[in-house]
Batch of 2 targets.
Target 1
Amino acid sequence: YADTRGPAKGGIRFHPDVSRAEVMALAFWMTIKCAVANLPYGGGKGGVICNPKELSHAEMERISRGFMRSIAHVVGIDVDVPAPDVYTNATVMAWMMEEYSSIVGHREPGVITGKPIALGGSLGRNDATARGGFYQIEELAEIKSLDRAKTTIAIHGFGNAGQYFAHLAADAGYKVVAACDSRGGVYDENGLDVATLIETKNSKGRVQGQGKEISGDDLLHLDVDLLVPAALENTITMDNQEGVKAKYILELANGPLTNDADDALADRGVVAIPDILANAGGVTVSYYEWTQNKTGFYWELEDVHQKLRTKMAKEFRAVWDLGEQKSITLRTAAYAIALDRLAEAHEATGTADDFAR
Ligand code: GLU
């Protein structure tokens, strides 16, 4: 939890592997991410150890409301503003907002983002994480003069971010050749039928039904131009990094590369667009949602898309240019920019805190 640049911001994760250490790492990344995206926020995160795949709708509601009851005294529209993360969604945000509102005695939509449109959500929040990453790939394509039809993409993780990214990329003419979820995936060198794959995943719960069946590790080792880890932390480690052949990696997940694997890939010249930049589209549109909740004035979808595109292009170029200028990785460049912005805010707050201690 850090609030030097503004209220803490970050998602709430429901997952069996949630731990205190993980939540702290994720909150740290949110602090940096909000600075990279230049949003007036610090970073925070929340988590509940549970397995939504085994819970009924009513159980999910009870956990969501119970969790909000226990954190209501530490969150707030100008204090800490949660959002969705792995296995939480707009419905969960609605329950939590409603619960919080009943505790404080008035409706407070801006206490949480990623809500359903009917309860103060923003248009364009649902695909914002993927879209933010997609706009950055469009910038990369321009810088590197990539031919979309010849640019092959493999997506590791087929939840919200992975599915929307596949859809946006395929729609724009890129060649999505592989996708997988935790149970395995499919590969077709001529390109997948993404719309059908999304339908299959959502009706059958699995990525299957076309191309050749492959494992998650096989997918990481495909000879593609762009690899998109879109699941959880520590997907690419020292045990499997050697086989990675992609030229570019777009980290739609948080922390998908371990530090040593990241170094090894960078040494081999693989360009990774780091999570704190690559997936910042989600929290950026969360910021737009919060702004709309505060003002009560709701935007058209085109406004959201246009503002997101402008921001992603600007911050991507800033990181890219610093990387080129100093011959450093995009991750180092993104951290440098974030730390500069945090230091500036810290300096501007003055010294009262230092003397109080
Ligand atoms: N959970 C998302 C992330 O890791 C979104 C956070 C937010 O919208 O506040 O960036």
Note: The chain has a mean pLDDT of 96.
Target 2
Amino acid sequence: MSATAPNSHFLDLKDLPSEVLRHILNTAKVWKAARAGMPKGAVDVGTPLAGHTLAMIFEKSSTRTRISFEMAMRQLGGSSVVLQGAAMQLGRGESVADTARVISRYVDAVMVRANDHATVVELAEVGTVPVINALTDRSHPCQLMADMLTLEERFGSMEERKVTWIGDGNNVATSLIEAATRFNFSLTLACPRGFEPSEDAVAWAEAEGGDVTLTSDPQGATRGADAVITDTWVSMGDVDAAERMKAFGPFQVTSDIMKNASADAVFLHCLPAHRGEEVAAEVIDGPRSVVWEEAENRLHAQKAILAWCLGKI
Ligand code: CP
Ligand code: NVA
């Protein structure tokens, strides 16, 4: 594929055609292999983002996203500026639009983790540099690119394979629905009643010909799965923790649930994890868990996302 225009946003998987997502994943694989054995702070051969700077805006907490994006820019030969939303004038009421206009004058791209998805969309609409969604209340597309890299490293193509999501129909679940549709695998989501994924995401998948099934039966949902994925029962910004703890009890991923999955099934979790809540320690710390590879792959997937947004691949 030829280089893209240097102002392509990465807001949601549904906004991008499968070929672009495939191209990003393939690049991530090649670049990951090319730097095997190198020190983590060493720059990649060719320094594709030399001279480029990424601004990173965080309205919510982060460990993986912050470190992996910062190291991604360093390895690509560029640099980054980390900003806490609350410490910016944005946190005192400066508009998103004015923030977008100003920040576009200083940096080459913006990564944003926002409370409200509309903030990311407005930054992209008003600003003049590429914007990357690093998690909102709606979605977490960078996570799903790392998850796809992890799954493909284990299984090769995910086409026609079966993935099961157990737990909250949250932001990560929405991006998983979009990934299933774009990468053509079968997805079953087992969620408690009242905590199903967004109707819009499910309707979009149906309209696009995606193979997405909803159920409230975690045992049945796991039958024959190649991968079982879960996430916290209480996401950042959720205010109904007590109600959630009650509703989600039967949705813990235990070794009993994993027994229904295929013999070589893997377990994924975007982290941070809560052992004894959404996942039993024996599963996340057991032989089927690929969560540490998954966390590392945030770095590799995002390097390719950054390079694509900036028109370098
Ligand atoms: N998975 C993920 O996005 O982790 P952080 O919240 O630590 O960035
Ligand atoms: N669903 C979680 C994901 C954290 C990476 C949250 O939004 O808090």
Note: The chain has a mean pLDDT of 97.
